[in-house]
Amino acid sequence: MTKHQTLLIWRASTSITDSSTHPGRLYNWDGTDLYIQYAGDYGPSRHLTVVFNVFVLMQVFNLINARKIHDEINVFAGFFDNSMFLIVFFIIFILQIVLTQWTQDVMKVARDGLNLIQWAICLGLGLSVFIIDFFLKFIPDTICPQVSTVNPDSLVWQETAKSS
Fold this sequence. Notes:
Blueprint: H1 3-27, H2 32-35, H3 39-42, H4 46-66, H5 83-102, H6 104-107, H7 116-136, H8 156-163
Helix pairs in contact: 1-4, 1-7, 4-5, 4-7
């Protein structure tokens, strides 16, 4: 791994992780005064169901961003070329819908799942990882700390050992 790759990976992993956990920090306050009015109709976990759903959708959409680690602007280039990725992506997405809508007793989500407006909010916030990733591509690698102090050129022995 070169120094450039180390900086790219550090920048991508820390910034996307931070941005995808932000909704949990932002919306995970007591919030009783905001959602207690719906407790009789939907159950008290409607609020946390949205937080859970936003977090998972951000991770799912970030799978697309994670395919491009060399600051390519178009993260959708070659999206349909890898059938295994598409299968896994859509299975995860469909499972998230099923878990959110119909597994109330197992997952402790809202009784009736989310309505269309709540799903639209969750999708909008989940899709925000594309905007975040787009702007992160313009952050210079030089402002990211170097994670490793090992000189990548000194790691040649590993390649030699594998070839023999």
